[in-house]
Amino acid sequence: MDAIFWNDSHREAFTAVPAKVRRKESSSDGVKPAEKMKKQASNAGEDRAMLLGFTMMGLSVLMFFLLGITILKPFMLSVWNEESNCTIIQADIMEDWVDCSFTCGVDCHGQSKYPCLQVLVNVSNSGQSAVLHYNEEAVQVNPKCFYIPRCQRDKNDLLDGVMNIKEYFDRKNDTPFLCFHRPESKPEDVIFIKKYDRSVVFHCLFWPSLMLLGGALIVGMVKLTQHLSLLCKVYCSASKEELGSVASRPDSQQSKTKKEDKCLRWRLNSQSMSNAPFN
Fold first, then answer.
1. Both 107 and 122 in a single domain?
2. What GO terms are given for molecular function (predicted)?
3. Can you name the residues that pair with 85 across neighbouring β-strands?
4. Closest by alpha carbon to 147, among 130, 160, 165?
5. CA 118, CA 148: separation in Å to the nearest integer?
């Protein structure tokens, strides 16, 4: 009976120790679910940040393309580049009104007339008189009038708007102001403002550039974070290998085996003492 109980207890002790060792190995080698979820969340956040950065960069390039065609190209090809000072000579409303057409709905069209305001100025650079226009488009549409008002059915509203502009120029009778002209091709015409000046071009280029810089900064920060995390993993793995090499030395293994032998002997003695009354 003693031999049977001793053999049974001996087998139980030898089978119990590897089970605990296996549980420790599985718990130490396996990755915790919380760490897996954290890693997946970080990867999803990095992917979204990268997508946001590349989207911002793509939209900025598209804005550069559209604004370059619609604004930057006319600004670069503009021929009204020479600045001068102009002084009002006279501002009169011509007797002959100009025909125009208006729309008041989907199937509603009509004909009307608008008053033509003619403004004569003296150009300081050339010393000659010229006709003042609002911008480049006014020169092409009607070279005799200052600007082209929006065509309306009510002629009184059109006349009131033109009279307000005439009073403005009458108050600036002797005050010089900035104007733009083309002395080589059209010395008889000057414009009051340019449709696309430097401030408009600056704002059109500033916001796409800011968006492009922001997208590149987001992508760069994500790449830097990934690089730092990779360096951290390499450092942690190297430190674990160093600890493993220290733990695998002979003296540490001997001390570990001695502890396991003592634990096994204590278990065997305790089990044999508990089974002693059955002898």
1. yes
2. calcium-activated potassium channel activity
3. 178
4. 165
5. 11
Q: 74 CB contacts (<8 Å, ≥6 apart)? A: 195, 196
Is residue 264 a part of any domain in this protein?
A: no
Helices (H) and strands (E) in the chain — how many of each? 7, 7
Q: Which token pair is 162?
A: 């033109």
Residue 202 lies in a domain: yes
- HSE value, Cβ hemisphere, 13 Å, CA-based, for 138: 23
- Give per-residue pLDDT as tens, 24-47: 444 444 445 555 555 555 677 788
Which residue type is seen at 110?
A: G
> CA distances (Å), 237 to each of 39, 70, 231, 261, in order?
17, 57, 10, 31
Instruction: Look up residue 132 and give its amino acid.
Output: L
Q: What's the pLDDT tens digit per position in 50-103?
A: 899 999 999 999 998 888 888 887 777 777 778 888 888 888 888 888 888 877
pTM, rounded to two decimals: 0.55
Distance CA 73, CA 176 (A): 30
